[in-house]
Amino acid sequence: MSKKEIRAKAKVLAKDFGYLQYMIERYLALWGEEETLQFLEACENPIRSSIRVNTLKVTNDLVTERLREKSVVIEKIPWLDSGFFADFEGSSPGALLEHMLGFYYVQGVPSMTAVSVLDPQPGETVLDLAAAPGGKTTHIGQMMQNMGMVIAVEQDRIRMASLKSNIIRCGVTNSLVVRGDARKLGNLGYEADRILLDAPCSGEGLIPLDPTRKTSKTMADVRYCATREDEMLDAAVNVLSEGGTLVYSTCSIAPEENEYVVDDILKRYPEMEVVEIPIDFGVPGYSEPYGIRLNQSLRHARRFLPHLHGTEGFFICKMRKREGESS
Amino acid sequence: MTLSLVDPVEWTSVIEQIDVEFGEGVTKSLLGNRVPVKLKRGRDETFFLIPTEWMSHATEEEGERLDIQFIGKELGSIAKGRFRLSLHVLDELKDLTDRTILVSRHAAEAFTYGRSILKESVLELNPELKRGQRVLVINENNECLGIASLSLDANRLRRLGKEKLVAKNLVDVGWFIRRLG
Description:
Chain A is of the alpha/beta class. Helices cover 37% and strands 20% of the residues of chain A. Chain A has twelve helices and 13 strands. Chain A has helices at residues 3-17, 21-31, 33-42, 60-69, 97-100, 109-118, 135-143, 157-170, 213-216, 219-238, 259-268, 306-309, and strands at residues 50-53, 73-76, 83-87, 104-106, 125-129, 149-154, 175-179, 192-198, 240-250, 272-274, 283-284, 302-304, 314-321. In chain A, the strands form two sheets. In chain A, strands 5, 6, 7, 8, 9, 10, 11, 12 and 13 form a nine-stranded mixed β-sheet that branches. In chain A, helix 7 (135-143) links the parallel strand 5 (125-129) and strand 6. In chain A, helix 2 crosses helix 3 and helix 6 packs across helix 7 (135-143). Chain A starts with a helix and ends in a 6-residue tail after the last strand. Chain B is of the alpha+beta class. In chain B, 25% of the residues lie in helices and 36% in strands. Chain B has six helices and twelve strands. The two termini of chain B are 26 Å apart. The interface between A and B is medium-sized, with 31 and 28 residues. Strand 7 (175-179) of chain A pairs antiparallel with strand 4 of chain B.
């Protein structure tokens, strides 16, 4: 499609589906008309709710058995050890006793997947940046079996309360929670074996969960987020130990906040490389979005998309810092 | 907030308060091979148990460098001069103490919504426990739901009407949802 055709088509679709026009123009340029329509239609449907069983406290079997007794429909997520789709049939997932006891955490499939990709190990030092409300921190603590240290960094005072509360509820005892700006990690004085940066983003992947996102953010907002994400990722690279693993993720589908950000980091830090994710989910990251050629290794990153996977939109990229090459 | 080691006099006072409520040696078992530290914010003090190799965080310089909000295992806090146990240690404490009250399924659910415990809901209570005693509230699956304070001597339980108050809810696991919505 020519630019003129894209604009004309976008204008119609934006009106039909209630989006800002610039968003549809980008989708059409990225995916073409047919896939854009599939995406827009998928975003009108609700996302399946899901839970992570907290194996620090209980087994998968115990939780699934008890939830089934309470008429919750449970289905295992194939690539996640303790992840389940859970249909609570109208009841509140947070109000059940099993939730209060910390037996499970209500968490999106992509968020659980990001921690599985990070693959934290017992005894390591792991950084979780922009950590509230604590879904990923508690998942990291769970995978580390409470051994080693997970350092959770959060700047927002109000969100800090939910982070601490979830750590207590889930029985995580190897966390250090620090209030601070994830762009100033040098002050921490740590070198981490693994870092998870699930960056605050424009949330363009959350449209199925929050329809107001169709009109709430401009392209300037996306650019602002991309700049902040770049700063946070840059800071993370600087505190990652040699040979260490960094997972960068966002709940945005915008290449400007994902592949572009990683591409810039790869240019600035030759010791960083994108590595393959040994879990089968999603579709490959874009190495040539909008016809702009980026680092080809970005195909190793993975994307969740509402029209292909029935989840919120999400981007996950796993990187490694090569040993002996830090500048 | 500043993280510091707990001085021995203060720690002795904490041990006394927990052990008096839940049995001698309980605090030592909760401590294990960890070290007690405290975070001070204004007049509030929260106590945590951390691995010995994390002790370097409890220095003045470290306090100036890092704004630590939470560390390791939260033991409890001091409010109005009295030590209050954190929900973080209840699972462990359950296996260390016999100061418990076993309640029916219906009462267990009500307790997690902040309700107190009535006579008709009590399935088991050690008759030697006295009024004011802190007890862990346990359901029929042996899960700890929170802490309550006995409102009578336990040996008077039999003589009580079925709708009379037995234990007042002090803290329960429903706090998570009530606090955060």
